[in-house]
Design brief:
mainly beta, 5-stranded antiparallel beta sheet, two-stranded antiparallel sheet, 7 strands, 0% helix, 52% strand
Amino acid sequence: MNLQAIGWDMFGRSGRGYAQGRFRGEQMAYSELEYRFPLQQNKDLLGGTVFVNAASFSSKLDGEKLMNKINPGYGVGLRVMVNKEKRTTITADYGFGQNGNSGFYLNINETF
């Protein structure tokens, strides 16, 4: 139960497009790319984002080796600035994964 897994990071934000713990293993490789853009002239209140991610896991039990299988995810999101002075945002993302996996993610503030 103490293996690396999707969504088990500090804020539960990795692997958007899959349920927390959907993939797990002894070793994990994870990468994510996100592009943020303004949705209005003043660039402060509303913003959008598109993202892609990929994860790979190794498992001695299943005989899976790291990087043999890549689990991709992708999605879109909306950002709403609620406190301009402290740069506090509410984030709403919808992610898609393989085989019908998907999910809605609601958070406060950005990961990076």
